[in-house]
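To: structure desk
From: M.T.
Subject: fold request, one chain
Message: Could you run this one when you get a chance? Sequence is below, nothing fancy, just the single chain.
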Amino acid sequence: MTSTRLPWTAVIPLRAGSKGLPGKNTRLLAGKPLYRHAVDLALQTGAHRVVLTTDIPEILEAELPDGVLALERPNELCGDTVPMAPVLAHALRAASCEGVVVLLQATSPMRQSVDIDAALKVFVTGQHELVMSVTEADRGVLKWGQIEGDRFVPLSDPAYCFSNRQSLPPVVKPNGAIYVMDAAWFVGRESFVSEKIGVVQMSAAHSQDIDTLADFERCEAALTLNQKGSNL
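Reply: Done. Structure tokens follow.
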């Protein structure tokens, strides 16, 4: 159980459609469906409740562990271009969620309990409206800019555009694995945007995301290796 001793609900979005890897959420990964890795990790980490929002019949009809609820997602929230915010807001309302909520993407199967626990610890400080997981990114992005007419407009400090990459400050990016927030706060705004966002940094190994078959096979190889190591 998470050391924060804080009651929290996990919400796991699971959409049927996937252009990169059709059927990935129910595809067997290291011996069990991909979505079950997120469900089992949430329960293992101490979630008091797990809510699945999905349009996948196999999941809606599945026999799920105690404390796990599968909500049928409305058709209008199942399209390729539908953002996560309205999907999460619907799930929170439909399941009458209160208090701390942790959004867990099923496509991040390498995420660990220590990562969720770390995010919860940052959230309970009360200094942030949202806490999200990040991972180290290429600092070369600080050299980037946009074109306005025939002008180059830097995305950050103009001096970075002419600096050696090695001298640039470290950069992180959201990895999509963990988002922590208060249910009422999110339902009231239906947006992740905030000026008070806390972060917890995850390793590149824990941040792997599944979008293609190659991603799936890479994660499966790593999980299988981990399982063999734990059995030695």
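Reply (cont.): The helical segments are 34-45, 57-60, 84-94, 113-123, 183-189, 213-230. Let me know if you need anything else for the meeting.
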